[in-house]
Amino acid sequence: MGFPVNGDSATDKPYKFLIYGRTGWIGGFLGKLCQAQGIDFVYGSGRLENRSSLEADIAATKPTHVFNAAGVTGRPNVDWCESHKVETIRTNVAGTLTLADVCRDKGIVLINYATGCIFEYDSDHPLGSGIGYKEEDTPNFIGSFYSKTKAMVEDLLKNYENVCTLRVRMPISSDLSNPRNFITKITRYEKVVNIPNSMTILDELLPISIEMAKRNLTGIWNFTNPGVVSHNEILEMYREYIDPNFTWKNFTLEEQAKVIVAPRSNNELDATKLKQEFPELLSIKESLIKHVFQPNKKTDGA
Ligand SMILES: NC(=O)c1ccc[n+]([C@@H]2O[C@H](COP(=O)([O-])OP(=O)(O)OC[C@H]3O[C@@H](n4cnc5c(N)ncnc54)[C@H](OP(=O)(O)O)[C@@H]3O)[C@@H](O)[C@H]2O)c1
């Protein structure tokens, strides 16, 4: 059931979205989608940790829904958070909670792009088993400061009945020139591990998040395409559709540990809840082909 929005049902009045993360990958993409769909939206100018700046944004824009695609993910990667713990807490913990609290005060649904990198394969959810973590499972990956604090925030946000927590994982988009894109990342690494994971195809799932806002859906959602795909399977598709001469080298998790600071999460999330709400949702491999590789196809073969 959706969150009861102040006054009229949100369906009776035109949508107005307030989006945080204007300069970011997900926030930028979301704005383009709203523009394409003719949805009235504005980007927030406040900083998440500054409550009065968020209240001023809401007072000035009177949104029907707020989207949070702001956060620190670290540059060039989450290892940054290990050496910038206070900055990470300021935005991802204090900031996210402040935004949720302000939205609750105003009776507004907050669609929060969170992370699914708070789980790792274990004996009850072994790699290759097809048994994924469900929405109600307790996070078990605290290997990185980034993930540890994201798991804490997810737990606290369960108390906010106005928040829709979307567990995004290893986001992929059709823009293969974007260095943040998981495909672009792994094609540029010198060596890659080869582990099946749940992933999020943004071209398919960001429009779904807009629809989730329209339906006032709240609570926790595994926000990944059903199933898993491994690094090598993606690189094989890349070779088939994009560059027939592409080659890569694998290395083990132990070897990878030597070139990164904090361990990374590998897991399968169970996407049954999202699939039940959106039966048209494609499996990860179908979505990769339809939304990423077919539109970018450069070879004759595939
Ligand atoms: N990319 C991934 O691999 C991934 C995976 C799973 C989940 N997510 C989550 O999805 C969200 C968006 O990710 P993304 O990849 O789009 O991130 P991104 O490209 O790094 O963009 C982050 C955005 O957050 C804004 N921001 C940072 N600190 C802020 C603050 N204190 N107040 C207001 N805005 C602030 C940045 O604006 P300024 O430039 O003005 O600081 C920027 O627009 C994050 O919460 C991230 O944890 C990402």
Detailed description of the structure:
This protein has 302 residues and is an alpha/beta fold. It has 11 helices and 6 strands. Helix content is 38%, strand content 10%. The chain has a 6-stranded parallel β-sheet with strand order 2-1-3-4-5-6, with helices on both faces. Mean pLDDT is 94; it is low at 7-11. The structure holds NADP nicotinamide-adenine-dinucleotide phosphate.
Spell out the key features of this protein.
6 strands, isomerase activity, alpha/beta, RmlD-like substrate binding domain-containing protein, 302 residues, six-stranded parallel sheet, globular, Rossmann fold, oxidoreductase, binds NADP nicotinamide-adenine-dinucleotide phosphate, 11 helices
Topology summary:
Blueprint: E1 16-20, H1 25-37, E2 40-43, H2 51-61, E3 65-68, H3 79-83, H4 85-106, E4 109-115, H5 145-157, E5 163-168, H6 182-188, H7 202-214, E6 219-222, H8 231-241, H9 253-257, H10 272-277, H11 284-293
Parallel strand pairs: 1-2, 1-3, 3-4, 4-5, 5-6
The structure holds NADP nicotinamide-adenine-dinucleotide phosphate.
GO molecular function: isomerase activity; methionine adenosyltransferase regulator activity; oxidoreductase activity
Keywords: Isomerase, Oxidoreductase
Domain RmlD-like substrate binding: 16-188
